[in-house]
C-alpha cells in the first residue's frame, strides 16, 4: 500500500520554482472562485513523523490567500474540550462553505497512536474508524470536498530524516525522544495506518499517499492534488448546473484523472528489469520448483487449503507461459484456469464482482485467474468503460472482496508481470513473424500500447490501493521470461508451504469460520 | 425503535380484498416495466419469529409474476457452501438486472442468532454488520434497489401468535422448541436487532419496520412499500434520463413519501390523551418534583454529569411552559435554554448539525433545546426545505450525533409533547383572544395545522428511526398541561437520579473517555 511512496521521488530546484510559480497563481484563482461556491474544502494531513506534514501545511499557508483559509492543529484536548464529546473540537473548527480548512493531527491522530502504544486494542481502533467514517461521510454528503493526505516515509528514510534534522541546528528542536520512540514502533504504526486507510478511504473521502522524502516534491504534489480536486469539483458543479439549465458545452468535459506528477517514477519504473537467469540454471530450478509445488498442492488438497492466483500484466508479458509452468506441476483435477475476457450477457446483468464470486472453487483446489477483477481499475478505467466514480470506489470493493477470501483461509497471490515497452515491441514483432504465434497479436494490443503511460499510472494506483500486508502484489520483472517463471513458482511455493504448515493462510487474527 | 410496530394495526377483510385487487395489478405492471430497467430489486426479510416473514413472501410469490422473480431461503450451509467464503451463497443467488429477488433468513440471520445465543460477542456482531454494510453498499452503488423488511411483534404478541399457531392443527408444525427458546431470549434478540438496524439502515439500503400481527395488514404493507419503492426508482431513472435529454415535464414530479398505509394508527394516535391531573395534586407534585430536581442538579453539577433535554411537539403543545417548570428548579448558572428557529447565515454556511454541536455545554450543566436537530426530519421534511435524500439520511446522522453524546456520558432525554388537533385549535383561539398571548400565534401556526397528517407521519417515522434503548423518545400526553409538566419533571428526575448514582448515563457498555 505504501510501496508507491518509497520510490525516492524528487524535484529539482529550478523545476520546482517554475512549477510553483504557476501553481500558486492557479490556486489563488481557484480560491477566489471557491468563495462563491456552496461547499467547503476539508483537507486532513496525517502520516509518518518527519514526513513533512507541518512543513507542507506551512507551504500551503504561504501559497494560499489566508483570509479564506482555516488552519488548525490539534494538541492535547483542553479542559473545555475534555468536558464535551471528543468530536466537539473538530466540529467547531470546520471551515464554512467557500473556504478551505487544513487540519493537522486531527481525528486520525489519537486512534492510531492509542493503538500503536498498545493502550487500545484493535477493536477500539475499529470503533474509532467507524466514528471517522460516519463523520466524514456526513461532511461529504453535505457537499464538502474531503481530501486526506498521508505523508509517507520508509523506516530507513524516516531514520535518515530524523538524523538530518538533528544535525541541523535550526531544525534540531523538531526531533524529540517521542519521535525516536515512534520510529522504533514503525511496523506497528504502519499496520495501524494500513488498516486506517483501508477502512476510511472512500471515493467521496479519498486518501492520497504522498512520498515525504523530498520537500519540494511533496509540497508540489500536495498542491497539485489539491488544485486538481478543487478544480474538478467546481467543474462538476458547473456541469451539473449546465445540465439542469439545459446547456451543453464541450468545454465542460471532465479532465483526465492524474494522481501523481508527470515524469515521476512509478512502482513499475522502479523495478530492475535487467534480472535474468541462465538457461541451465532455469531448467534445473524449474524442475525443482515444480516438484516442490506438486508435493505442496497434494498436501494442500488433503488439508483443504484453497489457493487463488491472479495474473495481470502487460500484453505479451508472459502470463500464459507462467501459468502453464504452474499448472504443469499440478493434477488436472486440482486446478482450474479462468480466462477473463469480455463479460457474458448474464455477467453483464450482475454486479461486476459476481462473475468472480461464481468462480470460487471448493476447498483444496487452486484457481488461476488469467486477468481478473483488476480489469475494473485497469482496462475499464483507462478505456473509459467504467466511469471515474465507478473505478474509484472499486478499490474498496476489491479490498472487501479479497478480505472475504482471506478470512475464509484462502491463499491469495497476485502477480503483475512487468516488461519494458521495448521488450514488448520486440515480442510483438516476433509474434508477427512466427506463424504459430501470429493469432495472439491483435489490433487491440497495438492500441493498448499507445496508452502505456495511462496504464502505468493505473497500475501504480492499483498497487497503492490494493497491495496490503495480507494480500500483497508481487511485481515480477519479466523481460527475461525464465526469471519471471521461476519467481512466480518460488513465491507460490514459499507461500503455500507456510499455509500448508499452518492449515490455511496466515491470517493475522487467526480466525476461522 | 420498534414501538411504531406495536400498535395493533389491522386490515379488515373487505378492505384487504379491495386493496389487493388494485395492488396486484400495479405490481405486475411495474414488474413488466422493470424488465427493461437496468437495475435489480433485492428484498430482504428479517424479524421476529412468527411475525409472518415466510407467509408474506408466499403472498408476494402469489401476487407477482414468478418468471421474473427469484425467491431464496437460506438454511444451514451445504458442504459446497462451507468450502467457500460465507457470502458465496448470497452472491450466486443475486437477482440480475430487471428482476426482483426475495431473500429469507439471508445475511442477517446468522449474525443476529450467534449473538442471541451468546456464541459470538458484540464485537463479532459488529464485524458481521460491517460485512453487510459493504455488501449492500456495493449492490446499491451498482444500482440495485435494496429494500429490507423487519417484521415485528412485541413479546406478548409473539407469545399469542405462537400459541395460536400451536392450536391450529394445520399450522402447529410451524412452531418448534426453537421458537419458544427464541421467545425466552426476546430481549436479547431485540437488542441485537436494534443494533443491526441502526448500523445497516442507510438511505440507499433502508429498513422498513412492519407490524407482523395481522396477516392482511402486513402483506398489504409490504406490497405497498415494495410498489412505491419500485415505482419511485423507475420514476427517478426516467427523470434522470429526461434531464440529461433536456426534457422537462411536470408529470415527472416525485411523489410524496408514504411509509405506512393511510388511516392506520401512529405512535401518536395510540397515546391516551385523556390523562389529567387534579389542580391540587398538581401543585403538590410540582413542588415536590422541583425540589427533587434542584437537589439532583446540584449533585449532577458536583459530579460533572451533563444533561441535554430536547423538546419537540405541536405548536401550542406547551413546550415553553414545561421548560419553565424545569428551569425554575435550577440555578441559573447551571442551565441554558437554546431556542431553535431559522438558522443564521453563519449556521447555513455549515453542516446542519454544526449549530447543535456548538451549543454543547461544559460538564455538569443542563442544556435545554426548545426544538432541535429533529427539525431536519420534521419541518424541513414536511415543508420540503430538505430534499428526500437529505432527510432520509438524517436519521442515521442524528443517531450518530446522539451516540457521541451518550458515549461521552451525557444524559439525553427527548420529549415529544402531544395534543389533539381539537385541543390545539382551542388553544389557538384562546391565544387570539387573550392580548398577552396573541403575539405567540402566527400565520405559520395556522399553516402547519393544515399539514397535521404529514407531520404526524413524520413524527411516527422519527420515533421509528431514532427512539433507541439508549436514547428513547418520551411521548408526553399534553392535552392536560399539568399532567404533561409532571410527567416531564418526573421522567427527568428519575433519569437524573440514576445517572448521578452511576456518575453518568447508564451506558450499556460502561465505557468512559
TrEMBL record, chains A, B:
Keywords: Transferase. GO terms for molecular function: polyphosphate:AMP phosphotransferase activity. Coiled coil: none annotated. GO terms for biological process: polyphosphate metabolic process. Gene3D superfamilies: P-loop containing nucleotide triphosphate hydrolases (3.40.50.300). Residues 11-235, 277-500 form the Polyphosphate kinase-2-related domain. It comes from the Bacteria. It comes from Plasticicumulans lactativorans. This is Polyphosphate:AMP phosphotransferase. Pfam families: PPK2.
Amino acid at each position: 500500500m505504501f510501496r508507491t511512496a518509497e520510490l525516492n521521488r524528487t524535484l529539482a530546484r529550478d523545476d520546482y520554482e517554475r512549477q510553483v510559480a504557476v501553481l500558486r497563481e492557479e490556486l489563488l484563482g481557484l480560491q477566489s472562485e471557491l468563495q462563491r461556491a456552496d461547499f467547503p474544502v476539508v483537507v486532513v494531513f496525517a502520516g509518518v513523523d518527519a514526513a513533512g506534514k507541518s512543513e507542507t501545511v506551512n507551504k500551503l499557508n504561504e501559497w494560499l490567500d489566508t483570509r479564506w483559509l482555516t488552519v488548525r492543529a490539534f494538541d492535547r484536548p483542553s479542559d473545555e474540550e475534555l468536558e464535551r464529546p471528543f468530536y466537539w473540537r473538530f466540529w467547531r473548527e470546520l471551515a464554512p462553505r467557500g473556504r478551505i480548512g487544513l487540519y493537522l493531527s486531527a481525528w486520525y491522530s489519537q486512534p492510531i497512536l492509542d493503538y500503536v502504544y498498545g493502550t487500545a486494542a484493535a477493536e477500539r481502533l475499529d470503533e474509532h474508524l467507524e466514528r471517522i467514517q460516519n463523520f466524514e461521510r456526513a461532511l461529504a454528503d453535505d457537499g464538502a470536498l474531503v481530501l486526506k493526505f498521508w505523508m509517507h516515509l520508509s523506516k530507513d528514510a524516516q531514520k535518515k530524516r530524523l538524523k538530518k534534522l538533528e544535525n541541523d541546528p535550526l531544525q534540531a528542536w523538531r526531533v524529540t525522544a517521542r519521535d525516536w520512540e515512534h520510529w522504533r514502533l514503525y511496523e506497528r504504526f504502519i499496520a495501524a495506518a494500513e488498516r486506517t486507510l483501508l477502512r476510511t478511504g472512500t471515493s467521496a473521502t479519498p486518501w492520497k499517499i504522498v512520498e515525504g522524502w523530498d520537500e519540494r516534491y511533496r509540497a508540489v504534489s500536495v498542491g497539485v492534488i489539491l488544485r486538481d480536486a478543487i478544480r474538478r469539483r467546481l467543474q462538476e458543479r458547473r456541469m451539473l448546473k449546465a445540465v439542469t439549465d439545459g446547456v451543453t458545452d464541450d468545454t465542460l468535459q471532465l479532465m483526465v484523472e492524474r494522481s501523481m506528477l508527470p515524469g515521476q517514477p512509478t512502482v513499475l519504473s522502479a523495478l530492475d528489469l535487467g534480472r535474468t537467469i541462465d538457461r541451465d540454471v532455469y531448467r534445473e530450478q524449474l524442475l525443482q520448483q515444480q516438484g516442490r509445488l506438486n508435493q505442496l498442492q497434494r498436501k494442500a488438497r488433503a488439508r483443504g487449503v484453497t489457493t487463488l492466483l491472479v495474473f495481470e500484466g502487460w500484453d505479451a508479458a508472459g502470463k500464459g507461459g507462467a501459468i502453464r509452468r504452474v499448472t504443469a506441476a499440478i493434477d488436472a483435477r486440482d486446478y482450474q484456469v479462468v480466462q477473463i475476457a469480455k463479460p457474458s450477457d448474464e455477467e453483464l446483468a450482475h454486479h461486476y464482482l459476481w462473475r468472480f464470486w461464481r468462480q470460487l472453487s471448493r476447498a483444496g483446489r487452486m484457481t488461476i485467474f488469467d486477468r481478473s477483477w483488476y480489469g475494473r481499475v485497469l482496462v475499464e478505467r483507462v478505456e473509459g468503460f467504467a466511469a471515474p466514480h465507478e473505478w474509484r470506489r472499486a478499490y474498496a470493493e476489491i479490498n472487501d472482496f479479497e478480505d472475504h477470501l482471506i478470512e475464509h483461509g484462502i491463499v491469495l497471490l497476485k502477480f503483475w508481470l512487468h516488461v519494458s515497452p521495448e521488450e514488448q515491441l520486440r515480442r510483438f514483432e516476433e509474434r508477427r513473424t512466427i506463424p504459430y504465434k501470429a493469432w495472439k497479436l491483435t489490433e487491440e494490443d497495438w492500441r493498448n500500447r499507445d496508452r502505456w503511460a495511462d496504464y502505468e499510472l493505473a497500475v501504480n494506483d492499483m498497487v497503492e490501493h490494493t497491495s496490503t500486508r495480507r494480500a500483497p502484489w508481487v511485481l515480477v520483472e519479466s523481460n527475461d521470461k525464465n526469471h519471471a517463471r521461476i519467481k512466480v513458482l518460488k513465491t507460490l511455493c514459499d507461500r503455500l508451504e507456510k499455509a500448508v504448515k499452518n492449515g490455511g493462510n496466515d491470517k493475522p487474527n487467526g480466525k476461522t469460520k
